[in-house]
């Protein structure tokens, strides 16, 4: 029986979900049709853009850039704030619909998931079923998705990244040569800018060229581990399963309440480091990786601010979790108000061990892993419940 995997990806999720919310509240204009962006703090030009509409993208406005830069490109840009509670509701609604098509579902991030449809499509057309799912999401929830249909997770995800929005695309193993090999190497899943630069410097410009390059030659460019993954990916090879969610653990978190309120940013950073170590150690111990990082601060007047973000891929590396918390800190703390408590958590857990090529581009990744191994070894030898206080839900 031919394996069939769907990858469903919400089109411009945060922007789309915000647009639906505004329309539900009576807005007369759909922000998806005009140059618009979502930002953590619309009034702060230093704030980072987390999502952009298609008209904004056509003007060269990209995510992860400051609002000030975007305004230089489009002074009339509409800037709206995000609503994580609403995003969570939209995500749950989206996942609930997808789950009705197959119980074998792996949520890859807040706005995308994989479905193993192999045993659900007997006598049915995969593309027709994918279109039915796409239409159901649009009609019931008000936003659009792309559905990639492929022979495995890799090809399904590659297919969903083809022309957007609101489309269904296939990428079977038999179609790899025609549909994928003609693309540039940067279009290959997990290949980032640094890997692209290395490949281009050796004359490897297309996925097809990469696919037929000898592994021993690739090893000289990106190392043995990266060479094998690049070669397999370029040839459409991926046997990783669609891993269903694990009900035994939904999230891990740790927090620290201070004997006296803190105002020094260095003190706050040290606390973040400690709780990140605790949380990352626990998910590694239980063999999980997390796709979502959240943090909160409690001020001296007992008011609380919190923020969460979705990672580009699941991870159990302390440094990567900590860096996300550090990035979010300015969005929940003004740097001056005394704090009495700081907390950090991870969620959307998976035991999927697949790694993206972007990891290999950071020369510190191996150092991070070795550091984590030493930390875990020390903790296992002398675990103190008071030191490793955490919550598992």
Q: If you had to describe this structure to a student in words, what would you say it looks like?
A:
The protein has 393 residues and is α+β, with helices and mostly antiparallel strands. The protein is 40% helix and 22% strand. The protein has 13 helices and 13 strands. A 5-stranded mixed sheet has the order 5-6-1-7-8. The longest helix is centred in the C-terminal third of the chain and has 21 residues, at 265-285. It is globular and about 65 Å long. Mean pLDDT is 86; it is low at 356-361 and 383-393.
Topology:
Elements: E1 5-10, H1 13-24, E2 36-39, E3 49-52, H2 54-58, H3 67-73, E4 78-81, H4 84-99, E5 105-109, E6 112-116, H5 126-141, E7 145-150, H6 153-160, E8 168-171, H7 176-180, H8 193-201, H9 207-211, H10 215-234, E9 251-262, H11 265-285, E10 289-299, E11 304-315, H12 318-332, E12 339-350, H13 365-381, E13 391-392
Parallel strand pairs: 2-4, 7-8
Antiparallel strand pairs: 1-6, 1-7, 2-3, 5-6, 9-12, 9-13, 10-11, 10-12
Helix pairs in contact: 4-5, 11-12, 11-13
Features:
5-stranded antiparallel β-sheet; 40% helix; 13 helices; 5-stranded mixed β-sheet; globular; alpha+beta; 393 residues
Can you summarize this structure?
40% of the residues lie in helices and 22% in strands.
Specify the number of helices.
Answer: 13
Encode the helix/strand succession as letters. EHEEHHEHEEHEHEHHHHEHEEHEHE
What value does the average pLDDT take?
Answer: 86
The structural class is: alpha+beta
Strands ordered across the widest β-sheet: 5-6-1-7-8
- Assembly type of the chains comes to single chain
End-to-end Cα distance? 38 Å
| Main sheet makeup | 5 strands, mixed
């Amino acid at each position: 029986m031919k394996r069939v995997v769907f990858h469903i990806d919400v089109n411009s999720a945060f922007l789309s979900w915000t647009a639906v919310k505004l329309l539900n509240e009576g807005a007369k204009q759909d922000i998806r049709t005009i140059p618009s962006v979502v930002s953590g703090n619309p009034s702060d030009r230093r704030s980072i853009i987390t999502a952009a509409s298609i008209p904004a993208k056509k003007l060269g406005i990209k995510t992860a850039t400051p609002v000030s830069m975007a305004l230089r490109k489009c002074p009339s840009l509409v800037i709206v704030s995000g609503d994580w509670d609403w995003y969570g509701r939209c995500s749950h609604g989206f996942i609930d619909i997808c789950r009705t098509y197959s119980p074998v579902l792996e949520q890859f991030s807040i706005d995308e998931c994989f479905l193993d449809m192999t045993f659900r499509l007997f006598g049915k057309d995969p593309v027709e079923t994918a279109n039915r799912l796409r239409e159901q999401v649009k009609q019931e929830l008000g936003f659009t998705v792309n559905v990639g249909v492929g022979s495995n997770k890799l090809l399904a995800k590659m297919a969903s990244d083809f022309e957007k929005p609101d489309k269904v695309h296939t990428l079977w193993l038999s179609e790899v040569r025609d549909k994928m090999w003609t693309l540039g190497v940067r279009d290959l899943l997990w290949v980032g800018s640094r890997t692209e630069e290395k490949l281009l410097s050796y004359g490897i410009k297309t996925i097809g060229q990469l696919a037929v390059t000898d592994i021993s030659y690739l090893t000289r460019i990106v190392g043995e581990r990266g060479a094998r993954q690049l070669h397999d990916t370029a040839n459409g090879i991926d046997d990783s399963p669609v891993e269903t969610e694990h009900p035994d653990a939904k999230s891990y978190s740790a927090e620290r309440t201070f004997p006296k309120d803190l105002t020094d940013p260095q003190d706050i950073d040290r606390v973040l480091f400690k709780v990140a170590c605790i949380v990352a150690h626990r998910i590694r111990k239980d063999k999980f990786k997390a796709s979502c990082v959240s943090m909160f601060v409690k001020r001296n007047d007992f008011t609380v601010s919190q923020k969460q973000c979705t990672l580009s891929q699941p991870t159990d590396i302390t440094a990567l979790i900590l860096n996300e918390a550090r990035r979010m800190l300015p969005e929940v703390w003004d740097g001056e108000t005394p704090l009495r408590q700081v907390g950090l958590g991870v969620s959307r857990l998976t035991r999927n061990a697949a790694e993206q090529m972007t990891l290999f581009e950071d020369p510190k990744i191996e150092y991070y892993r070795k550091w984590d191994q030493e930390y875990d070894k020390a903790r296992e030898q002398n675990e103190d419940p008071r030191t490793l206080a955490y919550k598992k839900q």
